[in-house]
Every structure is written in C-alpha cells, then in structure tokens.
Amino acid sequence: MKNQLQSREVLDALASGRPVSGADLAGRMGVTRAAVWKHVDALRARGVPIEARAGQGYRLAWPVQLLDAAEIEHRLIPTSTGALEVHWELDSTSSELARRRDTLPDGTVVLAEGQQSGRGRRGRAWLSPPGLNIHASFLKRFDKGFAGLSGLSLAVGVAVIAAIEDLGVSTAGLKWPNDVMVGDAKLAGVLVELSGEYQGPCTAIVGIGLNVHLTDAMRAQIDQPATDLAALCGGEPPSRNIVAARLITRLREGLARFDTAGFADFAGAFADVDILCGRHLHLSGARGEFEGVGAGVDALGALRVRTADGEVRVDSAEVTVRAQ
Prior knowledge:
Elements: H1 2-14, H2 22-29, H3 33-45, E1 50-53, E2 57-60, H4 69-75, E3 84-90, H5 93-100, E4 109-115, E5 134-142, H6 152-166, E6 172-175, E7 179-182, E8 185-196, E9 202-210, H7 216-221, H8 229-232, H9 240-261, H10 267-273, E10 280-285, E11 288-297, E12 303-307, E13 310-314, E14 320-323
Parallel strand pairs: 3-4
Antiparallel strand pairs: 1-2, 4-5, 5-9, 6-7, 7-8, 8-9, 10-11, 10-14, 11-12, 12-13
Helix pairs in contact: 1-3, 2-3, 4-9, 6-9, 6-10
C-alpha cells in the first residue's frame, strides 16, 4: 500500500506536464532520489509515459488529471444517485464489485486509476496504466432476472454514446454487441456480467473502458485499430473527472430506463448509431464461419444478418463480427 501511495504521489507531482527534478520529488515525498527513480520506473513499466530530460528532470508526455471523487460527485446531476468509489489501483473494477456485490448499495460505481487484470470480451486483457483512461464498473440490481435483460449491453452502449456526445464527440457509433467505435477504430468497450436467477432477482455488473489517452506502446499491443478522446478533441481531451461524471450520469439514467422499459426504449437510438447495418459482415463462432449483410437487431437485441440462405439471428456475444 505504501508503494502505491508513493507512486500516486509521483504521478500527482508530474500531472501538470511540467518537468520536476528528482531532487524536488524526493524532497516533497521525504524519500531518497533512488526511491523516486524506482517509483518512476514502476510507473513506466505500467505504461505511463514519463520522460527524463537532462538538466530538467522528469515530465509526462502530456498533462493528466487524477480522478477525484469529490469533484466527480460535484459534477453529477442531482438525480444521479448511488455510492461512488475511486481507487488508485485494482485487479479490475468489475472484480471489486463482484467481491462485494451482496453488501454494496444498488447503483454503486467503482473507478480505478489503473487495473492490473482488467478484462474485456472473451477474456481479453484490457490495458490500463494509471492516470490515462477511464476504467469504471456499475452495480445494478434487477427484479426481472436474466430473461428480461436481453439487449442490456446495447442499451449501455447507447448511454455511453450519449456521454461521449456530451463531451463534444458526435462521430461515435456502436458495433454489436459492445464496442464503441469512431470509424473503424475502437474508442470504448462494454462488458456486462450477470449473476442471480434466470427468472428471479439478478445483479448486473457493467464494466466500461473508455480511451482518453493512448500511448504508442498501448496502441502497439491492441489487436485492432483504436482511438482516444485526445485525438478526437484536437489533442486536448476534457478532464477525466468531467468524463467520469458524464459517463456515470448517463449510465445511471440509462440503467434506470432499462429497468423500467427494457431494450424497447433504446431500440430506435441503437438503430441511429448501428455501424453494422447495411454492411457486409464476416462472422465466426460456434456455428462456424459465414457471411451476410447486417440488418440491424431484433426486439431482444440479437444481430440480424441477411445471408444467401435467408436471415440469421445471432444472439451470443461469443462470436467475432468483422465488417468489410
């Protein structure tokens, strides 16, 4: 814990983007310069872009804003209710909620500066160095059970798009079932995990990863084209606290609407941002590989694909869809 706190101190001291000497950092933290170097090296190993310049000291490649729970709470609209936690580092925000799902209040949101074991769809690692992007998970309880939650990930995607539009980016779309895209580049991902009863009460943990700043090293490790808010906002993305507040507000609103009306209340909005509709698709999964043309989604959120043999409905997220 002490090492985590000191690593946070280093990142906080460098947050402005201006250079700070190793001696100044050591004096501020009450440690040796060798200890400062170890913390800088640890942050670099996690992917934080800290440069060292002769005669100037250490500096970040760009300014960062560390997450602040009080500032985020201040920016939430009054009807956005639920507990909020901000952590320096977790294995993953969704895992933290899963461990405590039975004791936390409905609507709890957990954010972390960085994740050690963040995961995406089909178990893929989600790269998450501290201070750069948004890693958030939402706890929502439903009385209707799994059977009534068809299309939840699409409704969440619509809410994420609304938050991104609030931030001034109007070019994002949704790739079924859970990717937020700008053109062919991924901006954010959604992962919904359910527990409970098929027909009775259940709990959804909704994990969201949103790219604010991607480093070159991170882009090199991602297995698909990716973009971030920095690129979409001319190099100066909104404060991460503003981003988090808009995301939380829109997600809490969206989850409440879904609880009341289900996917039907989101179907029109999804159609407006569906980037697969009308495009030639190549799909691979449990039923093998096949091709067709995207034809939107059905009332339960299943992907509709027109093939030479007729229309096929795909309702499993365990399928890879590539648009051509």
